[in-house]
Amino acid sequence: MDNISLTLSELKENAPLASSKNALVGIDGFVDKIVHPVDKRHGPGDQFERIQTISEFGARISSAAGKSANIELAPVVEKLGGNGPIMANAQSAHGIQVRYLGALGKTVIHPVFEEFAQKTNAISITDPGVTHAAEFTDGKIMLGSMASLDEINYEHIVSAVGTDELIKVFNEADSIAMVNWTMIPFLSDVFRDFLDRLLPTVKPNPDRIFFFDLADPEKRSEADLLEVLHLFSQFEQFGKVILGLNLREAEQVDKLLGFSPLENTSENLQVIAERIRTKLKLNTVVVHPTHDAACATPEGTAYVKGPFCDKPKITTGAGDHFNSGFVTAQMIGLSPTAALTVAVATSGFYVRTAVSPSLVELQEFIGTW
Q: How far apart are CA 348 and CA 343, in angstroms?
């Protein structure tokens, strides 16, 4: 059976389970200001030509060396952002009961998060960061201000919600996703406190999913990255760990673990996922380039091609939608191949529409792929 037919069959049977599943998602929070860098302006408002590619943008910046440059960032939309909120929104659209823990406002919830915070019964730790996401046809450049995220630590989490309520939230969760490790300086310390102080008090659930996402760890040291990778392994004693990686992250982690680089092929994508999974002793590793995706699980490896969109309406949040699709699919018991298909379809639907799809909308999208 091909992956489309398999996925549609499994979704038909298992999608109704989504409303009975609880997810805890965290732990960042950003106000995303999506912008288009201006190449030539012909008048007010949207009367301009945008800089189309990252290489063109880089050339414009490089040409200013020793001089100066003024590059206009034309606003497209201001919205809630951060890996955690976007993933949580997407899982909520799937029908999962989502609780959010993160940086949505210190004294009051930031306006872009008000509806989201109410919908997810959110626990806010501190103020959100701010990201200017410059979008291009071949990717995006995200410029962030995130000093407030220094306040995300275990003590502030407990202060925001209370120990008993925190234990209750973890007890109720069928999946716990803690993402954007790179941008949060003390998140490794939070993970240690979860392992040492919190999870031993939470009722055992061997089927509970722990999902982790690094979020472009290039700026972190190799020692820090290796440390957190081994922390992920320790969560296996409390459930099943899924590590989500884009292609660049997967290649970085693969190299750090001592493996030789491989050519980017469908077969090698599965090899990379499996050897990272084996080396770190994780339940699942999923790797998602822009055109396809692969995962390695105890059942073996799987691979699917994605519905690539050469003219996306939005790209910021595409990876978070992939993650939400994969985790939701795992929560409702889909096979690895079907989970990958749901993941690439969730991302594919989102970049075309700028809307997080329901599972019903996903079935329609997959059926007309």
A: 9
DSSP category for residue 196 = I
Peptide bond into 27 cis (omega under 30): yes
| Separation CA 168–CA 56 (nearest Å) | 51
Q: Do the Cβ atoms of 211 and 177 come closer than 8 Å?
A: yes
One-letter identity of residue 188: S
- The per-residue pLDDT for 144 is 84
pLDDT digits (tens, 9 = 90+) for 115-130: 999 999 999 999 999 9
Task: Give dist(CA 123, CA 104) in Å, integer.
Answer: 8
In the block, which residue shows the tokens 């909308």? 361
Give the pair of three-digit tokens for residue 180: 């954007």
| CA 186 to chain CA centroid, nearest Å | 19
Q: What is the rounded CA–CA span in Å between residue 57 and residue 63? A: 10
In the CATH scheme, what is the code of domain 3-33+79-367? 3.40.1190.20
pLDDT (average), residues 194-222? 96
Domain map (residue ranges) of the chain? 3-33+79-367
How far apart CA 256 and CA 151 sit, in angstroms, is 29
Q: 158-188, pLDDT tens digit by residue?
A: 999 999 999 999 999 999 999 999 999 999 9
Phi, psi for 344 (deg, rounded to 5): -70, -30
Place of tokens 């069928």: 174
